[in-house]
Design brief:
single chain; 212 residues; mainly alpha
């Protein structure tokens, strides 16, 4: 009788854990989606995309979006295991990620350039898919978010952002003319403030874990 009761309790526990893992929360999706949108900054990258299109010709929007998505999803699942191999816990990585987000936000708000990419001679997978879309900031952000949100919600947010990325890549020239430099600047600064607040929240939520 005791064994049967224990088995039932174990099944209930495993079921609740499984349900929690795959729990879809629209508020989480919205939050994660906004963070990724701000970090990827595909709208703010429109002038860069237009310049690359002018210099190197046609950009394969489908391939760039797909490759960026594969990179992001693979890193989301194996990134934590990689950290364990090199002896870094998720809380430490999340705190480091909060600093990266902080400086990215400063770039967006103040219009300064802290991180500089090397100039590329290609406009295919590199540099559009990597590092423009799935760059170091995005990778760091994904693992940081995984310590706070359900994986399924992060995956949905990634897909939604990739759809937006694809649309922007396809319509980059039209969007640049429609929004103008001032419009792009306003969007960039607004999401910079949001990203800065999220960076502070992420730091506060994980810094205690460093001392446990």
């Amino acid at each position: 009788m005791e064994i049967s009761s224990s088995l039932i309790s174990l099944k209930v526990y495993l079921y609740s854990k499984k349900k929690e893992m795959f729990e879809i929360d629209f508020r989480e999706i919205l939050t994660v989606g906004m963070v990724l949108f701000a970090v990827i900054d595909i709208v703010g990258s429109i002038p860069i995309i237009v310049d690359l299109r002018t210099k190197h010709g046609h950009i394969e929007s489908e391939k760039a979006s797909l490759v960026a998505g594969v990179i992001m999803i693979v890193f989301l699942f194996i990134g934590e295991e990689f950290l364990k191999v090199i002896g870094i816990d998720v809380h430490s990585f999340a705190v480091a990620g909060s600093f990266v987000l902080f400086f990215i936000a400063l770039e967006m708000i103040l219009g300064i350039r802290i991180y500089r990419d090397e100039e590329s001679s290609s406009a295919s997978i590199v540099p559009i898919a990597f590092p423009l879309i799935a760059g170091a900031g995005t990778m760091t952000t994904l693992l940081s978010l995984r310590s706070e949100f359900h994986t399924i919600n992060i995956l949905i947010a990634i897909v939604l952002n990739l759809i937006l990325v694809y649309i922007v890549l396809k319509l980059s020239s039209k969007l640049e003319k429609m929004l103008g430099k001032n419009g792009l600047g306003v969007i960039r600064k607004a999401f910079g403030v949001v990203l800065l607040a999220i960076a502070v929240k992420l730091f506060a939520a994980n810094v205690k874990g460093l001392f446990v």
